[in-house]
Amino acid sequence: MPRHLIRAHHYKNVRDSDGHHISAGEERAVPWVAITPVVHAIRVLERIVPKGELLFSSTHHDLVSQRKHHGALKWGTLDRRVENLVSWINQEATAQGLDAQMVPEYPHGNLGLSRLRRTLAWHVARRPGGLVALAIQYGHLRAALDARTSAGYGNRGRRGFHGELDVETALAAAQTAARLRDAAAAGEKISGPAARLALIGATSIPSFEGALTTPRAAAKFLARDGLVLFDNPDFFLICAFKRDTALRDPDPGATAPNQFACLLGCGNAVRTDRHARAAREHADRLDAKAALMPQPLGDRVRLTADRFRDLADAHDSAAQPAEEAIA
């Protein structure tokens, strides 16, 4: 799915060289990256409000309360909008016979903006490079790039955001371990220099049931060097991240790999039959694209496709059942 850059103004903590707040705001230094449905939604909002107005303007959206002041919709109004969206989704799912697509009732109250925010974070964080993308989307880029041991954080909010990143990272890693455990139980074979370590890591934690919910528990989980598993679908592998055997030097104190910068031949790599199948399917898609390209560019794309097939072939030739790999 194509990606788009969204540029916009922000207003919080925007100050001039003398420290005075600039009420007109300024354009964000880093744009948001969004997929096509988000762009379509913005285009619809732009048609609802006059040019230059806030997309969620109270004047033009809050028709029930008929607010007369300027500014964005308030938190409570947006919470109600989220609940209305959930009701609409469930109504449409029922009408279309898609009960599995319904949003389940949350036992601890309404969903609201805060839980919607965490849901979006869940999906963003579970992609390679997703934690940096999450920091950009939520305006905490500097927090994500600061060294964890730095004493230069400006406020409690930045320290807190590291905790959010840890929680999302730990939840994703726990789910990767659960998927590997299920794949091994289903008879999938495994290959790679870290296969044995990955299987130990997958079986050394209880079944994932959403228990890793606090930053402290997440940090403790991620500190298990060599036993934390990170799925990397773009490179068709699982990384059993261990600092001493990582081919690319991790940052000091790192508890997660740079998933967007994997290197072939890394000692932390693990593949299952699922990864091999996905690599071959990706190679087929690349070949289909190459057939529509000019020859020099098409040849390079076909070479990339061949490399992915080589990865799958190497897995097939070396893969073992879980019982043999862990012996």
Task: Show the helix and strand layout.
Layout: E1 3-6, E2 9-10, E3 26-27, E4 32-35, H1 36-48, H2 58-61, H3 75-95, H4 112-125, H5 130-137, H6 141-145, H7 156-185, E5 190-191, H8 195-203, H9 215-222, E6 229-232, E7 237-240, E8 269-272, H10 273-290, H11 295-318, H12 322-325
Antiparallel strand pairs: 1-4, 2-3, 5-8, 6-7, 7-8
Protein model, in words:
This protein has 327 residues and is α+β, with helices and mostly antiparallel strands. Helix content is 48%, strand content 8%. It has helices at 36-48, 58-61, 75-95, 112-125, 130-137, 141-145, 156-185, 195-203, 215-222, 273-290, 295-318, 322-325; strands at 3-6, 9-10, 26-27, 32-35, 190-191, 229-232, 237-240, 269-272. The strands form three sheets. The chain has a four-stranded antiparallel beta sheet with strand order 5-8-7-6, sandwiched between helices. A two-stranded antiparallel ribbon has the order 1-4. Strands 2-3 form a two-stranded antiparallel sheet. Strand 6 (229-232) and strand 7 form a beta hairpin. The longest helix is centred in the middle third of the chain and has 30 residues, at 156-185. It is globular and about 65 Å long. It starts with a strand and ends with a helix. Mean pLDDT is 79; it is low at 140-160.
**End-to-end distance, in Å?**
42 Å
Principal-axes geometry comes out as globular
Cross-sheet strand order for the largest sheet? 5-8-7-6
Major beta sheet summary: 4 strands, antiparallel
Radius of gyration: 23 Å
Extended strand count: 8
Secondary structure tally, helices: 12
Q: Give the uncertain stretches in residue-range form.
A: 140-160
**Helix-strand category:** alpha+beta
The portion of residues assigned to helices is 40-55%
Q: Can you write the helix and strand succession as a string?
A: EEEEHHHHHHHEHHEEEHHH
Mean pLDDT: 79
Q: In what range is the share of β-strand residues?
A: 5-15%
